[in-house]
Amino acid sequence: MEKKTILKTENLTKAFGGLKAVNNVTLTVKDNTITGLIGPNGSGKTTLFNVISGVYKPTSGAIYFNGKRIDGLSPHKVYHEGLVRTFQIPRLFQKLTVLENMIVAARSNTGENLLGTFLRRRKWSEEEKRLAEKALEILELLELDNLRDTPAGELSGGQMKLLELGRALITEPKMLLLDEPAAGVNPTLAKRIFEKITQLRDELLLTFFTIEHRVEILLEHADWIYVMHNGSIISQGKPDDVVNDKTVVDVYLGEA
Amino acid sequence: MERVGKLADPLIYLLDMVIFIGIYSIVSISLNLEYGFTGLANFGKVAFFMVGAYSSAILANFGYPYIVCILVAAAMAGLAGFLVSIPALRLRADYLAIVTLAFGEILRFIFKNEDWIAGGVQGITVPSAFQLTGIPIRFSMLIQIGIVYLSLALCYLLVQLIVNSPYGRTLKAIREDELAVQALGKNTFNYKTQVFSLSSAMTGLAGSLFAQYVRFIDPYTFEPFLTFSVWMMVILGGPANNLGAILGAGVVTSLERGARIIKDYILLPVDPHNLRIMLIGTLIILILMYKPEGLLKESKIKTSALEVSKKWRRRRS
């Protein structure tokens, strides 16, 4: 069964002065898949994510999400389209509690505009309860619910990664851009994070586009892999095909 | 305020201090909303205080009733805050500090040099809002206290409502990591502009109360030192805690006014103004060394989500 395309980039380029960090990248991500993006350090993976999520404007090229052109939109507008990203180093709100980190990420509610704060107290109070329930359910799924009142700054590295994932989930995204969800956590937890991601793909029908340096774990769970080198896509395919591709091996191990 | 020539009534000194604590508490709470909760380093507090004081003074000279003076003063300062915020809030924190600091000085020089506005260096007297001739000075001070503390109560309530809401939670999130808040789909610029304008309006209100109480203002009243005093109040009391902001205002104002008052009673080997600066400097060093989070801890965000969280614990264990 052919899945439909949810994200497409066409000849996407991002240059910083003379350096093309992202060079003419054309790729597609199919709906309800885990699509991996690998490549050596400095190959432009995070820059590509920054361009897709609207942090940088592309120098040239186009990005389509769900059939709509999104290149050049600001980050909060990209988010409203249902495309949500996480960061390589978790960007949590350190002094807010785990639960507050979750709720603050939820789609804006009535109490988030200044007048609504005063005039629609009852309404947002109800919304707040509903959001808290939903947040706690996601935290339970991620096994973080016991830490809900702990400031996010006091979590371990792995817990921060999970919270970052949870914070993206509560926004009810269509697709998530995950920047190294398993970096800096122990192998067991890394595996568990990817099992959770697979579970979310199957149960919530989400799409994941994920950068990961722990290639062995990613290959186990991904449906499709793109390989990036010096800003360009040099290979793509099913995980098994990609690992046997000579250009990929050269890039990772150095040319023979 | 009518100064008493000979050794003054100690009660008047006390009431005077109470009034100043009230006025500075309002400014301190407004800076707390900006810096403590939202992380905006506004180093131009004195500018908005000055806008409020001058607006109020000029209107009072035209004979407008006091309530009009107060409200227009707050509105003018809020407008000034809004206008400054549009360019300034696009900048990073450290640049924001410099721009706001410069704005205060520019404004002070305008009031100083353009004497058609409000008398330039000659200053401007503020007619009393209350036609209470022949009543004891203590009594008129009590009325002032009533007005100041009513205003303080309203400002405190307003800020408490703001910070204990989803809106306030977003403000704290902006303080922690603005880019991440944007990635979560929130237009942080709007939040910051609103906070900046509202805080400036509150500061303007305090400026109006100040002008009405001291009854004479000139550009030298609004040196940048006032901004730093207010910063000390917030840092000392504990950022992101409104009671802390009031406590800080109490401690700093007591030291500042106290140093002036004490010279009337005992002979000091140093100039009381210098003593004041020494005392506050020492206090700030002690606080930063031993209690960097301030006297009171950051307050929790109290919304209905907190109740849900508590029930969850009971359900699970």
Could you characterize what this model shows?
The complex is a heterodimer of chains A (256) and B (317). Chain A has 256 residues and is an alpha/beta fold. Chain A has two domains: 5-92 and 172-253, P-loop containing nucleotide triphosphate hydrolases (Rossmann fold, 3-Layer(aba) Sandwich), CATH 3.40.50.300; 98-154, no CATH class. Helix content of chain A is 39%, strand content 24%. Chain A has helices at 45-52, 75-80, 98-105, 114-119, 121-141, 157-169, 187-203, 215-221, 239-243, 246-253; strands spanning 5-16, 19-30, 34-38, 60-65, 68-69, 83-85, 175-179, 207-211, 224-229, 232-237. Chain A starts with a strand and ends with a helix. Chain B has a two-stranded antiparallel ribbon with strand order 1-2. Chain B contains 13 helices and two strands, in the order αααααβααααβαααα. Chain B has a domain at 10-223. Chain B has helices at 10-37, 45-61, 66-88, 93-113, 115-118, 137-163, 166-176, 178-183, 188-214, 225-237, 242-262, 272-290, 304-316; strands at residues 124-125, 216-217. Chain B has 317 residues and is mainly alpha-helical. In chain B, 49% of the residues are buried. The A-B interface holds A 53, 55, 74-77, 79-80, 84-85, 87, 91-96, 99-100, 103-105, 107-114, 116-118, 124-126, 128-129, 131-133, 135-136, 145, 148-149, 167, 171 and B 161-162, 165-170, 172-173, 176-177, 179-187, 194, 198, 298, 301, 303-305, 307-309, 312, 316.
